[in-house]
Amino acid sequence: MSEYQLYCFAQSGNAYRAALMLNLVGADWEPKWVDFFGGAQRAPTYREEINEMGEAPVLVHGDRILSQSGVILTYLARRSGKYLPQGEDEELEALRWIIFDNQKVNGFLGPYRFFKNFAPKPGDPAVMEFLKGRALASLGIVDKRLEKKPFLVGDRPTIADVSMTAYLYYPVEEFGFDIAKEHPAIAGWLERMKALPGWAHPYDIMPGYPFGTDGYRNRKVS
Ligand SMILES: N[C@@H](CCC(=O)N[C@@H](CS)C(=O)NCC(=O)O)C(=O)O
After folding, report:
1. Count of Cβ atoms closer than 10 Å to residue 86 Cβ
2. Which residues of the chain have pLDDT under 50?
3. Whose CA is nearest to atom 16 of ligand 1?
4. Which residue lies with its CA nearest to atom 12 of ligand 1?
5. pTM of the predicted model, to two decimals?
6. Is 109 in contact with 163 (CB distance < 8 Å)?
7. Which amino acids bring their CB within 6 angstroms of ligand 1?
């Protein structure tokens, strides 16, 4: 068995943060597929034994079971010494961007993409407009930041950057707008992240892609 197991699925940008980090630090890891669209994360055994919050990703390392990608990134950075913010100022700055990402950037982009592609019923237009507007406003803030610095905290990549990648490498068609094209500084940063040793696309390192021929839109989410 590998040293780390990651509960994840290919369509999850939240899980991608952890999968990418495991790759970037050269960890010995294996994915464990969560049948998210089949409702596996809602099963009582998942909640009791894996994550009471009913979410992916979950990282298992020996007896330790961790959820919340920000916690997983912190853990892996501390253990490997890689992508670790240095000193209190950097630590706080990285945490600031991780929280902003979780809540406002990928926190809006993820549900928007879910409703657009995977939910049993398409999203209500007003809700979709709200999610897209909030996601784009937040991406604009990130773009401005990256006009001034090569990476979110400074001159080198940290877990804040790994976190921010969450949904940003998924295909343009899944959003209906081109995030990189509309945000030149983000586009440059995505290329810098992509050049890091160990970088891989979410669909190449997490299981569950492609879907069956019916697609999940036609599959009941229980
Ligand atoms: N802030 C969490 C978000 C995790 C999350 O929402 N994951 C989704 C999958 S992409 C999930 O499991 N959602 C289940 C639910 O909300 O019930 C993290 O970064 O780990």
Report:
1. 12
2. 213, 215, 217-222
3. 55
4. 55
5. 0.96
6. no
7. 12, 14, 41, 54-57, 68-69, 102
